[in-house]
């Protein structure tokens, strides 16, 4: 029969093969739905830093940014003006964050109308196209930007269905039909806070809550407050 | 181990193994059971946050006390049997006595386990029917603490992935935080807007699944002011592990102050809220586009 | 012999062509793509809904079904039915394969299937274990670290589903198939081709489950609760297909076992002489046959909900998620006894050999197995105590759940009284059996808290219940599984397993198993729910302790793997025919057991537990003429 060295070589080959397979498996799992951390640049430093965060929400993320081109998504604008599909955002602690959301998506409506009331933001008001609002009609909500652990709930106003020049897929330019929404919130203590969208806005998914709604890098992410 | 001479002695003068085990078991149980009942039992969570939580602690106390003698019996038995009856190096070829049965032991065992089991089931049923023990009982509860006494009704609305709370007695007010008045009988009506969740108010000893289209009622009688933790205890998707929040039990004055300020905050959205109902079924197929 | 010589002479490539695993994989992949593109071509464009996404549920289902059909055809499962359709006489040609190749092809020798099962199940057991290691790695810190939250849920689901699905056949597959025909004096199982089919179906199912990672995984854990399952990625379909195939495999396995045990016992093997292991297989098989079809039906409904947009389980559209929960647990609770009962049987089978005494209270032990079989049908709603389902029956389910500890107690008293005044030898299999008592005792006593509704309100869905079922299933089934491996593998392979490595494996596994799961009782009581990727800061020490212990437990299992490979491939110490001085019939045969088991069908005159009794012949060598194969 086979010699001991032959068997040993076989055993070593088996261990190596198992190692490679396990390595592939683990790397597939760790990278699958992950989203790299985007560090939001600080405008004013110090004990009470000020940060600008500019976001875009799109109905379809497009083939350039995702293997799932028809998924709905948040995008963040980096310092060079480029839109990135990265939803883990690093922010300084105890910071004032001025957020601007450009929304290119239509209305889907909230399951729970209560979430149409902006909360946890300065004055409990959002400013939509220059107009302050204490509430958005729940059926009009296109998305929400919500950080439950910070008590933050912000409904996002929709592009009307009959608007002209609607954006097909991302990245969308500001010359296309959109709504501009601004608000300010405070990050508080350091921590790893998740954010999500509450509007069942995942087209093509039963109950509208699958796929992008349950995948980090689309309608979910973290605020990495340090 | 001096089992070698022991075995030869056993041949001459039979050792009553059973009596030794029983005596050791009795001694150990008599010492251990009260210690467990008095020191370990009350230390088992969820603590003293509500009447229901205290009741669960009492239940755990009783059950640890009941299972302690059982544990002792098996520990003593195995400790004795495994050391006393081990084969010696020289006698590897020997077999033990061919004992195939002992009807009295069988009957005793069946009777004893049967009694313990029936006792525990009876005790559990009594405890359950008294108050419902803080568990979700569905839309038509059979165990209502304090009879039909009027209770503060609070609705727990679960959705992916947050609990919100609605107070019909405060004009259908909805809040993102659960605030309860102290020393009050509360009826929690738990429902869901999408997936199955489970509302777990840990320190209050309350757990009730949230199902779409179902009104799941759990009762709790609060004690003094405190903070408690709410977590989702049924896998509900991506942020299941992040579906937690703090709740508050506050005294009556603080509760009305809180209600007044929440009302002000709630006012803009009030006109959009659906009428208070025990279940809500938003269009299940609703999706974008 | 001529065929063997011919195969040996043929060049390697020629030997690789034919109906075997290689062909099966090729045809399986081909079938997969045929189903994938077929579904897209036929259905995709006709439905707006499907056109919207790159892949759809239907193409995933049809792809994998095509893959399974191709896989089975490649193994040669269609040859026999096709030949019969064309009018050829029945034959058992698959049995004649010799050499190493028969382990990689359709083989109807029950001993080959047993060994195939041992390695196949073992492979997936280690994959499930790897997932557990990754889960514990993630839980080293209270916040998320290595795996994204969604992937963590997929890991939890993969671990749970793999273990609950695969290990269901963990003892009946390898040891049931190998030993039952021998123990009852038969030459084969009643339906040898179905026997092979159950194994290859499991292997296909295991591959389907693991490839869920290419379709986004699934977030539901092993229970697959709706509506979450309706929302989930196409990876959910892998779960549905896996469990449905496992269910079919379980049903067939159980039917085959029942048919074999009822009809093929040798002369003299009355019901009261049947080895207790065979009784355990019989009661487990009964549960399988009755429970697994419920699972298959439930998952078919869920598959329709996901593909054809039916609404069996959709509240507000005429369905109810309670329907799913009830159906799932009607299967799910017998399922956990399908896992536990073979453990009972193995412990009771082995104790007499190592205590050198007859099995005490044989009839009581059988009554215990049958009592659990019966009662396990009456307890499923204890999984739904706080679900809000109509609560009137809760006292009943509390009672029935606690009643089940009476027949379970029979196993304990029979085992304990078998040890009483014995001559106990602490060989490795015996150590695992004794550890079973310790683990199952803790598992059972923690079950008392879960069955009591007031206490369950806090422990339900927490790490407490997770620790409880790991004590009963890992501490029960898996420890019994290792006892069986150390006890019977020398008989199955003809080589001894290293005793010293075995003892190190046992002691490390026992120690780290308890060190892993005992603190989790506390974690549950302190408020940590199951399947969460985050937990309160204060529980970090407990979780880190558990994680480190779990890694050590994993290392202990790797040591076992090393022992297996070292003993069977390198040391190769031939095993005696009867290393344990057992009176059971399989140890009266040579090691390994010859192809046709017996030259003559044996005649039984007693049960195999006559230790210390006058040496009555268990097996009369002269029996019926050997014409029953």
Describe it:
The complex is a heterotrimer of chains A (226), B (289) and C (629). Chain A has 226 residues and is an alpha+beta fold. Chain A has one helix at residues 4-31; strands at residues 37-39, 42-44, 50-58, 73-77, 83-84, 88-91, 96-103, 126-128, 131-133, 143-147, 152-156, 179-186, 191-196, 220-225. The longest helix of chain A is centred in the first third of the chain and has 28 residues, at 4-31. The termini of chain A are far apart. Chain B is α+β, with helices and mostly antiparallel strands and 289 residues long. Chain B has 2 domains: 3-85 and 116-131, no CATH class; 152-270, Cupredoxins -  blue copper proteins (Immunoglobulin-like, Sandwich). In chain B, helix 2 runs antiparallel to helix 3 (51-84). Chain C has helices at 2-9, 12-16, 21-42, 48-51, 57-75, 79-85, 110-138, 149-166, 172-183, 192-210, 228-231, 235-263, 276-307, 321-355, 362-375, 394-403, 405-419, 428-451, 453-459, 463-493, 499-525, 540-571, and strands spanning 603-604, 619-620. The two termini of chain C are 20 Å apart. At the B-C interface, helix 3, helix 4, strand 7, strand 8 and strand 9 of B face helix 8, helix 14, helix 16, helix 17 and helix 18 of C.
CATH-defined fold name of the largest domain in chain C = Cytochrome C Oxidase, Chain A
Task: Walk across the major sheet of chain C and give the strand order.
Answer: 1-2
The rough form of chain C would be described as globular
Q: Would you identify the CATH H-level superfamily of the largest domain in chain C?
A: Cytochrome c oxidase-like, subunit I domain
Quick one: biggest sheet of chain C? 2 strands, antiparallel
Work out the count of structural domains of chain A.
Answer: 1
Query: Roughly how many Å apart are the termini of chain A?
Result: 63 Å
- Assigned CATH superfamily of chain A: Cupredoxins -  blue copper proteins
The general outline of chain A is globular
- Which stretches of chain C are poorly predicted, pLDDT < 50 over at least 5 residues? 1-7, 46-54, 620-629
Determine the fraction of residues in helical runs of chain C and give it as a percent range. 55-70%
Tell me the fraction of residues in β-strands of chain C, as a range: under 5%
Given as residue ranges, the uncertain stretches of chain A (5+ residues, pLDDT < 50) are: none
Q: Rounded to an integer, what's the Rg of chain C over CA atoms?
A: 25 Å
* Strand and helix order of chain C: HHHHHHHHHHHHHHHHHHHHHHEE
């Amino acid at each position: 029969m086979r010699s001991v060295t032959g068997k040993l070589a076989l055993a070593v080959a088996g261990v190596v093969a198992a190692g490679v397979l396990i390595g592939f498996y683990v790397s597939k799992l760790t990278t699958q739905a992950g989203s790299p951390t985007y560090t939001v640049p600080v405008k004013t430093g110090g004990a009470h830093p000020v940060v600008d965060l500019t976001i875009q929400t799109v109905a379809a993320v497009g083939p350039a940014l995702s293997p799932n081109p028809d998924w709905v998504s948040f995008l963040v604008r980096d310092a060079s003006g480029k839109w990135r599909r990265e939803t883990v955002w690093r922010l300084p602690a105890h910071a004032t964050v001025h957020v601007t959301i450009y929304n290119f998506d239509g209305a889907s409506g909230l399951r729970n109308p209560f979430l149409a009331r902006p909360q946890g933001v300065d004055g409990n008001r959002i400013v939509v196209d220059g107009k302050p609002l204490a509430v958005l009609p729940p059926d009009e909500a296109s998305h929400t930007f919500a950080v439950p652990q910070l008590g933050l709930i912000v409904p996002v106003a929709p592009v009307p269905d009959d608007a002209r020049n609607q954006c097909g897929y991302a990245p969308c330019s500001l010359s296309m039909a959109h709504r501009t929404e601004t608000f300010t919130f405070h990050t508080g203590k350091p921590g790893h806070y998740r954010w999500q969208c509450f509007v069942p806005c995942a087209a093509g998914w039963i109950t509208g809550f699958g796929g992008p709604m349950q995948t980090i890098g689309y309608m979910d992410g973290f605020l990495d407050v340090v | 181990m001096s089992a070698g001479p022991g075995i030869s002695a056993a041949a001459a003068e039979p050792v009553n193994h059973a009596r030794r085990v029983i005596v050791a078991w009795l001694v150990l149980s008599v010492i251990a059971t009260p210690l467990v009942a008095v020191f370990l039992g009350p230390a088992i969570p969820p603590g003293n946050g509500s009447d229901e939580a205290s009741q669960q602690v009492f239940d755990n106390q009783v059950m640890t006390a009941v299972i302690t003698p059982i544990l002792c019996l098996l520990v003593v038995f195995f400790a004795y049997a495994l050391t006393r009856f081990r084969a010696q190096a020289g006698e590897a070829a020997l077999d033990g006595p061919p004992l195939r049965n002992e009807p009295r032991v069988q009957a005793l065992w069946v009777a004893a386990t049967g009694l313990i089991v029936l006792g525990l089931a009876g005790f559990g049923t009594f405890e359950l029917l008294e108050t419902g023990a803080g568990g979700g009982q569905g839309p038509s509860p059979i165990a209502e603490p304090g009879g039909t006494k009027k209770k503060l009704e609070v609705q727990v609305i679960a959705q992916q992935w947050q609990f919100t709370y609605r107070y019909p007695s405060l004009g259908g007010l909805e809040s993102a935080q659960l605030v309860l008045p102290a020393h009050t009988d509360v009826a929690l009506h738990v429902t869901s807007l999408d997936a199955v969740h489970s509302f777990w108010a840990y320190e209050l000893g309350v757990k009730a699944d949230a199902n779409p289209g179902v009104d799941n009622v759990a009762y709790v009688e609060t004690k003094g002011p405190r903070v408690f933790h709410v977590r989702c205890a049924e896998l509900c998707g991506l942020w299941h592990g992040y579906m937690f929040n703090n709740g508050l039990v506050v005294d009556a004055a603080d509760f009305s102050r809180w209600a007044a300020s929440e009302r002000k905050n709630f006012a803009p959205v009030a006109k959009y809220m659906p009428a208070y109902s025990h279940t809500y079924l938003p269009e299940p197929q609703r999706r974008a586009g | 012999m001529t065929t063997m010589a011919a195969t040996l002479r043929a060049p390697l490539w020629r030997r690789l062509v034919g109906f075997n695993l290689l062909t099966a994989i090729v045809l399986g992949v081909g079938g997969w793509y045929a189903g994938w593109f077929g579904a897209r071509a036929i259905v995709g464009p006709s439905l707006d809904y499907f056109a919207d996404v790159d892949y759809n549920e239907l193409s995933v289902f049809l792809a994998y079904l095509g893959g399974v059909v191709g896989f089975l055809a490649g193994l040669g499962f269609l040859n026999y039915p096709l030949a019969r359709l064309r009018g050829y006489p029945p034959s058992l040609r698959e049995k004649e394969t010799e050499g190493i190749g028969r382990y990689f092809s359709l083989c109807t020798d029950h001993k080959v299937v047993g060994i195939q099962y041992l390695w196949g199940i073992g492979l997936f057991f280690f994959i499930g274990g790897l997932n557990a290691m990754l889960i514990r790695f993630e839980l080293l810190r209270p916040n998320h670290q290595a795996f994204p939250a969604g992937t963590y849920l997929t890991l939890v689901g993969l671990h749970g589903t793999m273990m609950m699905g695969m290990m269901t056949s963990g003892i009946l597959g390898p040891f049931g198939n190998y030993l039952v025909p021998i123990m009852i004096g038969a030459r084969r199982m009643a339906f040898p081709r179905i026997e092979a089919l159950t194994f290859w179906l499991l292997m296909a199912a295991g591959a389907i489950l693991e490839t869920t990672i290419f379709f986004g995984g699934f977030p539901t854990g092993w229970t697959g609760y709706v509506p979450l399952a309706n929302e989930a990625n196409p990876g959910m379909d892998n779960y549905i297909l896996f469990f449905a195939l496992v269910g079919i495999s379980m049903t067939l396995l159980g039917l085959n076992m029942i048919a074999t045990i009822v009809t093929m016992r040798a002369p003299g093997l009355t019901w009261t002489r049947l080895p207790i292991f065979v009784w355990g297989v019989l009661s487990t098989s009964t549960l399988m046959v009755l429970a697994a079809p419920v699972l298959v039906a439930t998952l078919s409904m869920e598959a329709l909900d996901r593909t054809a947009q039916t609404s069996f389980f959709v509240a507000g559209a005429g369905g109810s998620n309670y329907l799913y929960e009830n159906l799932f647990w009607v299967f799910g609770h017998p399922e956990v006894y399908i896992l536990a009962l073979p453990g009972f049987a193995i412990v009771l089978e082995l104790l007499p050999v190592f205590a050198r005494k007859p099995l005490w209270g044989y009839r009581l032990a059988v009554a215990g197995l049958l009592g659990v079989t019966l009662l396990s049908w009456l307890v499923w709603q204890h999984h739904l105590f706080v679900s809000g389902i109509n609560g009137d029956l809760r006292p009943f389910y509390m009672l029935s759940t606690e009643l089940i500890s009476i027949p379970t107690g029979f196993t304990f008293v029979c085992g304990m009284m078998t040890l009483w005044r014995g001559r106990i030898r602490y060989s490795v299999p015996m150590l695992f059996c004794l550890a079973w008592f310790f683990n199952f005792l803790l598992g059972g006593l923690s079950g008392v808290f879960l069955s009591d509704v007031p206490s369950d309100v806090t422990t339900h869905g927490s790490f407490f219940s997770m620790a409880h079922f790991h004590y009963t299933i890992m501490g029960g089934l898996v420890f019994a599984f290792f006892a069986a491996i150390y006890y019977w593998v020398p008989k199955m392979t003809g080589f001894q397993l290293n005793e010293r490595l075995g003892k190190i494996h046992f002691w490390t596994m026992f120690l780290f198993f308890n060190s892993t799961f005992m603190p989790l009782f506390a974690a549950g009581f302190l408020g940590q729910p199951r399947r969460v990727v985050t937990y309160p800061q204060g529980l970090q020490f407990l979780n880190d302790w558990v994680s480190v212990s779990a890694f050590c437990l994993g290392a202990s299992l790797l040591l076992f793997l090393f022992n297996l490979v070292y003993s069977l491939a390198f040391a190769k110490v031939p095993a005696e025919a009867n290393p344990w001085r057992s009176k059971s019939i399989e140890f009266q045969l040579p090691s390994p057991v010859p192809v046709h088991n017996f030259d003559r069908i044996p005649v039984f005159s007693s049960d195999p537990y006559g230790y210390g009794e006058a040496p009555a012949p268990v097996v009369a060598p002269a029996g019926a003429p050997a014409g029953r194969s």
